Here is the input.
Amino acid sequence: SQTIHQWPATLVQPVGSPLSLECTVEGTSNPNLYWYRQAAGRGLQLLFYSVGIGQISSEVPQNLSASRPQDRQFILSSKKLLLSDSGFYLCAWKPRVNEQFFGPGTRLTVL
Amino acid sequence: GENVEQHPSTLSVQEGDSAVIKCTYSDSASNYFPWYKQELGKRPQLIIDIRSNVGEKKDQRIAVTLNKTAKHFSLHITETQPEDSAVYFCAYLSRTYKYIFGTGTRLKVLA
Here is the structure.
């Protein structure tokens, strides 16, 4: 079966601390992978997407970075978090021709 | 550019009435148009999609229509129920494999 995992589910971090969010998928090879951020009550902001291992496209210049060390693993990182980094982080994938599915999300609060 | 306008931003309907959400996109090369439903605190869920080779698609109480000439597509929900209350996002798949999302419509179904 095809599934997508994200962890942790919730995270509270102090300003200036590092961040690492992980997303893994199962059930297909070479999927397109995406990271989105959603501020409270707002829409979906695309942060990064990847069409293959080592191929990362950045949509918004900021203090975040992404990596894809394995075909089915997508990692979102930051060296120093800002207050404005708080939000709901969603990993998504495109396992088939067109459909995109979202992971369960990580709710990040930066204090 | 890559853009989609979604209206209205909020919509309140009485239970049993119909709801319509409209989106207008800019990229004439778009061929895939999904709709997502996001309940409070949850991930967006793909509820219906349409490809450019058809003008309408139905799935029980929900339907989507597409007018490629006018670059419009709409979500129709009939016989609305309280559990239809959520935020709905339209989107299209761009030629660069990104999903371009609308800003969302908050639907409230009043019992």
About this structure: The first strand of chain A starts at residue 3 and ends at 7. Chain A touches chain B at residues 32, 34, 42-44, 46, 49, 51, 59, 90, 92, 94, 98-105 (CB under 8 Å). Chain A has a mean pLDDT of 93.
